[in-house]
Amino acid sequence: MALIDVHGLERTFAVRRKEGGRRRRPTTVRAVHDLSFSIAEGEMVGYLGPNGAGKSTTIKMLTGILHPTSGDLEVAGLAPQRQRTELARQIGVVFGQRTTLWWDLPLRDSFDLLRRIYRTDPARHRANLDRYVELLELGDLLDTPVRQLSLGQRMRGDITAALLHDPRLLFLDEPTIGLDVVSKGRVREFLRVLNAERGTTLILTTHDLADVEALCDRVIVIDHGTSVYDGSLTGLHRHGGSTRTLVVDLVDEAPPIEVAGATTRDVSGPRQWLTFPADTSAAPVVAAVAATYDVADLSIQEPAIEDVIRELYSHGSPGRA
Ligand SMILES: Nc1ncnc2c1ncn2[C@@H]1O[C@H](COP(=O)(O)OP(=O)(O)OP(=O)(O)O)[C@@H](O)[C@H]1O
To answer: Where would you tag: which of 88, 107, 140, 247 has the fewest CB atoms within 10 A of its CB?
Structure first.
C-alpha cells in the first residue's frame, strides 16, 4: 500500500511583480503543476530538481503546511491539509539549513521537550533515545547547549529529535549540507541503518548527488512543478549520458593517461582529469590507472545534479526507467 499518494497536484501563488515604475500587476506563479507519484512504505526516494522547480512547495503540501490549489493528496492514509496534527505524529522533518532544537538548551532538554510535545510514551522515548544516541555517537554531547555544537553534531541532534516519536516517514532537506566528509558518511550510514532496522520511509531533497547515490534506490526529478523522471539513479545517468571525473595526482608529470573505459580530458602538471560514464563502476578505471602509473593520490568527482538534469533534457525523452 502506498504511504504517499499524489495525483494531479497543483499549487499556484498570486504574486505582484513590479512593472515599470510603481505599477504592479497581479500574476500567477504555477509552483506545482499536474504532479502525480506514489511512494510505498520503506522506500528511500531522492526528490530532485533545479532551483525553483517546486520541491519545497511539494514537501510543504505533503507535510500539511501549505494547501494544494487542486488535486489529490494522501500521506499515511491522512489528508495533510485537514489532519495536520495527526499527520505530525507520523512524520519527521530534518532541515540541513536550520535547527528545530532549542538554541540555549542542552540536547537532553530539547529531546525531553519534544517527548512532551508529541506525548511520546516515556519508555518508548527512552528506548529510542538510547538507540539513536548510540548510533549517532551523541553520548558525550547530551549536556551541551545546542549553540555550542559543531554543525555535524547539531545535525545528528536534529536527526535524533525528528525520530524520537517513531515517525513512519522522514523528510530530509539537504541533511549533509556544509558537513565534512566524515560527518556526511556518518549521517548517510545512520539513515541506511534506520531504513533497514525500522523500515522508515525517507524522502530526501538534496543537491549532493553522493547522498542520493548512497541512499536512494529511486529518484523523482521535478522541473517547472511537474515530474520529468521517475526511476533509478543509474537510469537517470544513462538517459542523460552524464560522466564522473577521476582526478589523478601522479608522482611525476606524464603524457595524457591512456586506459580503457575512460578519457583523459585535461592535464596540469602531475594532475590529470579522466572522465568515465557515471552509470559504470569507477573500480576498473582506478585499477587500470594504479596498475600502469605511479599514483600519489586519486579522487572521484560526482556530476552536479543540475548538470545531470540539464543533460537529461539535452538528450530528450526524460521519462521513466
Ligand atoms: N510563497 C510563495 N509565493 C510566491 N511564489 C512562490 C512561493 N513559494 C514558492 N514560490 C515560487 O514557486 C516556484 C517553486 O518554488 P519552490 O521553493 O517550491 O522550489 P524548489 O524546487 O524548492 O527550489 P530550491 O531548490 O531553490 O529550494 C518558484 O518559482 C518560487 O518562486
So the answer is: 140
What residues does each domain of the chain span?
A: 2-237, 243-302
Label residues 216-230 b or e (16+ Cβ within 10 Å = b). Answer: bebbbbbbebbbbbb
* From the candidate CATH numbers 3.40.50.2300, 1.25.40.20, 3.40.640.10, 3.40.50.300, the one assigned to the domain spanning 2-237: 3.40.50.300
C-beta of residue 302 within 8 angstroms of C-beta of residue 210: yes
pLDDT in tens, 191-227: 999 999 999 999 999 888 889 989 998 999 998 999 9
pLDDT, one tens digit per residue, over 126-146 is: 999 999 999 999 999 999 999
Q: Is 31 in the pocket of ligand 1 (CB under 6 A)?
A: yes
Q: Is 81 in the pocket of ligand 1 (CB under 6 A)?
A: no
Cα–Cα dist 289/194, whole Å: 37
- How confident is the model at residue 92, as a pLDDT? 95
Best of 56, 203, 205, 220 to mutate for ligand 1, by most ligand atoms within 8 A of CB? 56
51 CB near ligand 1 (under 6 Å): yes
Determine if the pTM surpasses 0.95.
no
Best mutation site among 55, 206, 228, 306 for ligand 1 pocket (most ligand atoms within 8 Å of CB): 55
Beta strand 70-75 pairing with 218-223? unpaired
Identity at 66, one-letter amino acid code? L
**Least trusted range by pLDDT, from 262-266, 269-273, 316-320:** 316-320
